[in-house]
Design a protein that fits this description.
25% of the residues lie in helices and 32% in strands. The chain has 336 residues and is of the alpha+beta class. The chain folds into two domains: 229 residues, 3-Layer(aba) Sandwich (Rossmann fold); 95 residues, OB fold (Dihydrolipoamide Acetyltransferase, E2P). It has a six-stranded mixed beta sheet, with helices on both faces. The chain has a five-stranded antiparallel beta sheet with strand order 13-17-14-15-16, with no helix packed on it. Helix 2 packs across helix 3 and helix 2 packs parallel to helix 4. The longest helix is centred in the middle third of the chain and has 18 residues. The chain is globular and about 75 Å long.
Length: 336
């Protein structure tokens, strides 16, 4: 049985539709990531599950129990926010144990679970500090620990790493992945960062305008995007989308998609397309050249030691088996 079922849920704010008949299931022990641009409905989804908002249609089930009309405290969920939401006057120990104290859990049990949680997150040395004495990464560990200690049916993470610098985000992303594997926790994770989605999620749901555009494993979503929105949202740099004739493809498709890593530089002009380098981006291990081909931009990944520069002429050959085809509405089709 799925741990969480989100069934045909709609949410409106006046004339604004935040969610439009959205359905998905979260399996026991799964980490499912909701990813999409600002305003797509991902945080609204979390707030509805947490009981912080009321839905207009549909229902929500957790561990086999209908919770749509239950108050937040009775939903068996724990939420981790991007702003940490720690009590500034309490020590880390007190923050971790607060929810258990409110449930009138015995002092010995609270202390045992505080120590267990602190050990799992490597924050034992911080237990007597207050939030004002912690770094951003330490605060986020405490916020995660405060959710962990409750041992809920479902964890809800609302962009928990967005306030951290780039290096710390990578570190904590890896720690969250290891923690999920160790605890086999059931997690619904919201982010606008497609790298977080691809690296953390067992599955990812790409959202736009209050609807799920595609739900699948990271590999499925990256390798077989269901439409042009998913194709260009997932992947950095984004997938190239061009009329078939630019890639010398015979097809009834309106657009052909090809990712930068599936384009090959060639010294042979026969069978290739020719363009001029308009931009060069070095990322360390790789380099991305953006070229102009018959008034269309095309980005190709090349080795970091590539000696191609702005203004150079380049010849490119697409790898045919890695092409994607889309109709005029943007939906994925097979080549015809």
């Amino acid at each position: 049985m799925p741990q969480l079922q989100f069934k045909q849920v709609s949410k409106r704010y006046g004339d604004i539709v935040a969610l439009d008949n959205v359905s998905f299931e979260l399996q026991d022990g799964e980490l499912l990531v909701l990813v999409g641009p600002s305003g797509c409905g991902k945080s609204t989804t979390l707030r509805l599950i947490a009981g912080l908002e009321n839905l207009n249609a549909g229902n929500i089930v957790i561990d086999g129990t209908e919770i749509t009309s239950k108050p937040s405290k009775d939903r068996d969920i724990a939420m981790v926010f991007q702003n940490y939401a720690l009590y500034p006057h309490m020590t880390v120990r007190q923050n971790l144990g607060f929810s258990l104290k409110m449930k009138k859990t015995g002092a010995a049990e609270i202390e045992s679970r505080v120590k267990e949680t602190a050990a799992a997150l490597d924050i034992e040395s911080l237990l007597d500090r207050k939030p004002g004495q912690l770094s951003g990464g330490q605060k986020q560990r405490v916020a995660v620990g405060r959710a962990m200690i409750r041992k809920p049916a479902v964890f809800l993470f609302d962009e928990p790493l967005s306030n951290l610098d780039a290096k710390l985000r990578v570190t904590l992303r890896n720690e969250l992945a290891r923690l999920h594997q160790r605890l086999a926790a059931t997690i619904l994770y919201v982010t606008h960062d497609q790298i977080e989605a691809l690296t953390l999620g067992d599955r990812i749901a790409v959202m736009k305008d209050g609807q799920i555009q595609q739900l699948g494993t990271p590999q499925e979503v990256y390798n077989k995007p269901t439409n042009t929105f998913v194709a260009t949202f997932i992947g950095n740099p984004k997938m190239n989308l061009l009329p078939p004739k630019i890639l010398q493809v015979v097809s009834d498709a309106a657009l052909v998609g090809i990712r930068p890593e599936h384009l090959l530089l060639s010294d042979q002009e026969t069978g290739c397309i020719t363009g001029r380098v308009a931009a060069r981006q070095n990322t360390g291990a790789d380099c991305f050249l953006t070229g102009e081909f018959e008034n269309h931009s095309l980005t190709v990944r090349v080795p970091a030691n590539s000696d191609h520069h702005i203004g150079d002429t380049i010849q490119i050959t697409p790898i045919a088996e890695n092409m994607h085809f889309f109709d005029e509405s943007g939906a994925r089709i097979s080549q015809v």
